[in-house]
C-alpha cells in the first residue's frame, strides 16, 4: 500500500470514531436527539399568594394561597414573633385560607410547599408588611345584642374620633332584616351615623347589623379598630299620641288604643317651657329621676317612673304636686306630667325605642337634641347619607 493511501485510511478511521462518539452525546432522556445535552423542565405547579408582598398591606384584605397544576402540601403564615396565623387547607389541596384577622403594623412570612402533577416540589415563600395607622378609631353600635326595642328605634354607630371619609365607613355597614324594610343611613354628626326605617319598624322584625370597620381607612391615616355586630328584635308596636291641646296622653298598641291618661304638658304660652311638637323615642327608663333646673328655681327634685324622651330635658313622669292640673291645664316646664299610678302603668309597658308623637304645642323641637332621627322627614334623612 502506498504511503498516501495509508494516510487516507487512517484519517477515515479517525473520522468514524469521532462521529460515533458524537452520536452518543445527542441522546435525550426520552431517546430523542437534543443536539446540546438534556434541558431541565420548569415545574408545572404555580403558587399564588394573597398578599404576595408589599409594605402597606391592609390587614383586612383577603389572605389565601392557591395553586395551579398541583396541590399544596403545607402552608404556614408567621408573624414577626414567630406565631403562626390560623388557617385551613382545603380538602382538595388547591387552596389555603387564613382563619383570623391580621394585625396592624406587622410583618408576615409565607412558608410551605406544593407538589406539581409532574411530581416536582415548589416552595411557598414570600413576605409582606401591614399598614401602621396613625390612630385606630374605636366605634360602638346600638341597640346591643339580644335587645328588644320599640318600632322607632334607630341603629346608631358612634366613633371616638371624627370620620373624614364617611363614604368608606358607610360602605362597611350592613343591615339585614327578617322581613323587607326600607331604610337608610344618615350622618347626624362627624362621629355618628344612624340607620332608620322610612316608616316605623314592623312589629316582630329580627335585625342583624354587620359593621365591618376593621381595616377601613377613615382618612388622615386613621383606621377602624375592630368589626362590630349586633342582633336585636323589634317588639310589639306601641305609640304614644301626646296632643298637648287635649290634656290627655293616649297609648296605642298594635293599632288599638289601650290607655288614655290625664296629663299636664308644658306651658302653652311660653315656647321655652312648652312640650315641643315632634316625634321622640323612649330613650331611657328610671324608677326615680333627679330633676334640676336652677333657672326655674328647683334642684334635686325626685320624680318617679321617669321615661326620658329627649336630651333637651323632656320626660314623661309622675308629678303628684301637679295633680290638680292633670287633664285640665298645661303647667309643666316641658315634661309630660301624669299621676303616680298612671305614670307607673305607662312605665311598665314602655320599651326603649317606642315612638312618642307630640302635637298641639306652640313650638316644635329643633332636630339637634338626641334622639332626633324622627324629627327629619324622609327626604331630609336620605340626603344625609354619604353614598
Tell me what you see in this structure.
This is Ig-like domain-containing protein. Keywords: Acyltransferase, Cell shape, Cell wall biogenesis/degradation, Peptidoglycan synthesis, Signal, Transferase. It holds the Pfam family YkuD. This protein has 387 residues and is mostly beta strands. It has 3 domains: 84 residues, Immunoglobulin-like, CATH 2.60.40; 101 residues, Immunoglobulin-like, CATH 2.60.40; 138 residues, L,D-transpeptidase catalytic domain-like (Beta Barrel). 11% of the residues lie in helices and 39% in strands. It has 4 helices and 28 strands. The strands form 7 sheets. It has a 5-stranded mixed β-sheet, with no helix packed on it. A 4-stranded antiparallel β-sheet has the order 1-2-5-4, with no helix packed on it. The longest helix has 23 residues. The N terminus is likely disordered.
Net shape: elongated
Architecture (CATH level 2) name of the largest domain: Beta Barrel
Helix content: 10-25%
The average pLDDT score comes to: 90
Count every beta strand, where a strand is a DSSP E run of 2 or more residues.
28
- What is the strand arrangement across the widest sheet? 22-21-20-28-23
Q: Give the helix/strand class.
A: mainly beta
Low-pLDDT ranges? 1-37
Q: What is the CATH top level name of the largest domain?
A: Mainly Beta
- Tell me the Rg in angstroms: 38 Å
Q: What is the domain total for the residues? A: 3
Can you count the helices? Answer: 4
The percent range for strand residues is 35-45%
CATH domain topology of the largest domain:
L,D-transpeptidase catalytic domain-like
Q: What's the end-to-end separation, in Å?
A: 105 Å
Biggest sheet overview: 5 strands, mixed
- Write out the CATH superfamily name of the largest domain: L,D-transpeptidase catalytic domain-like
Pathway: Cell wall biogenesis; peptidoglycan biosynthesis
Organism: Saccharopolyspora gregorii
Domain L,D-TPase catalytic: 238-359
Keywords: Acyltransferase, Cell shape, Cell wall biogenesis/degradation, Peptidoglycan synthesis, Signal, Transferase
